[in-house]
Amino acid sequence: MFKKNILITGGAGYIGSHIVEKLVKNKFKVFIYDNLVTGHKLLINKKANFIEGDLNDFKKLKRVIKNNNITSIVHLAAYLNIKESEKKRKKYYKNNVGGTLNLLKACIDSKVKNLIFSSSCSVYGNVKGSVSERGKLRPSSYYAFTKLKSEKIIQKYSKILDINYAILRYFNVAGASNSGKIGEVESSHDHLIKNLAIQALKENPKVYIYGNNYNTKDGTCVRDYIHVSDLADIHIKTLKKISIINKSLILNCGYGRGYSVKEIIDVYKKLKKNVKIKYLKKRPGDIAKIYSNISQIKKILNWKPKYDDLKKILISSINWEKKIDNGK
Ligand SMILES: NC(=O)c1ccc[n+]([C@@H]2O[C@H](COP(=O)([O-])OP(=O)(O)OC[C@H]3O[C@@H](n4cnc5c(N)ncnc54)[C@H](O)[C@@H]3O)[C@@H](O)[C@H]2O)c1
Question: Staple 164 to which of 27, 199, 238, 242, CB 3.0 to 4.6 Å?
């Protein structure tokens, strides 16, 4: 029933391409909708149908959903640089909130029954560590605000459209597919592990740490890192689940363990001994410490992580970086 035509907004991006790879393997008919603003041709799966388009092009979106008999959507397309979101609020509102609203409106009078939304742990804001789905929602960056606003719009429209939704709140996503074909290309998001992988190819690697006086065990920010392949698996399981139980879900997606930036760099140092560390000012909107309570996802999806190993995540990211560097 759920294995029908599926639309992936942002499917030419980092996480989207990993979800597409799994969907193709699972014999879905996949349609990617992406404007390539931070997506890359290199990440477009050859077995999927690619439509170059913008979320804000309502007519095109509507046509794509209708003409291709789309029954499920995974909505990833968004801007995600926290620092930039503070300075360019209108740009983020239009793309992330306006884009989500447009997508939902384009689903009116369609066959869409299931929608998965890529939300973020940042919707919880400043927490003291572990957070469950029932935690208070207090976004501390503008990016996080756009994610929370999108969640609310989805919840409202799910009633109007009579669809099941799953809001997946990702923690920090890292690593690359075992296939060696896809990984993170875009470097503008300023993600720690991507930055470490880029530096790993340099003779004299340098790493910047934003802030060293947070209220954490060693003063640096604590995050929960999940391998992108585990996250992609979660999407397949979630899609199956919401279509079988005919209900909506909100799930945290992480490993349930926090690592500080310094701890990650300590693991990295075993791979790159000569790395130099420089401390910079705190980034506005950054949370001190957050990691997920994953009892819900384990219980509801019967999910077990397969790649829960920081060293392996780092190695897979570095190997991917080598591969794209060789292709230049
Ligand atoms: N990477 C993480 O650690 C992380 C953590 C939490 C949540 N998320 C969420 O996951 C989603 C995917 O993130 P990613 O890391 O793969 O980033 P990404 O930049 O690689 O992917 C985003 C994709 O969306 C496309 N896009 C953006 N605006 C668009 C628009 N208006 N119309 C059409 N396409 C558009 C981009 O071209 C890109 O391919 C985002 O919604 C992000 O907020 C990511």
Answer: 242
At 269, the amino acid letter reads: K
The number of the ligand 1 atom at minimal distance from the alpha carbon of 17 is: 16
Q: pLDDT tens digit string along 97-113? A: 999 999 999 999 999 99
One domain for residues 286 and 179: yes
| Domain span holding position 18 | 5-173+225-253
Q: 287-323 b/e with 16+ CB inside 10 Å = b?
A: bbbbbbbbebbeebbebebebeebeebbbbbbbbbee
> pLDDT tens-digit profile of 134-147?
999 999 899 999 99
Q: Could you tell which of 44, 80, 96 is best to mutate to test the pocket of ligand 1, judged by most ligand atoms within 8 Å of the CB?
A: 80
Specify the amino acid at residue 126: N
d(CA 215, CA 91): 32
Which of these, 147, 39, 138, 52, lies nearest to 92 by C-alpha position? 147
Tell which atom from ligand 1 comes closest to the C-alpha of 119: 7
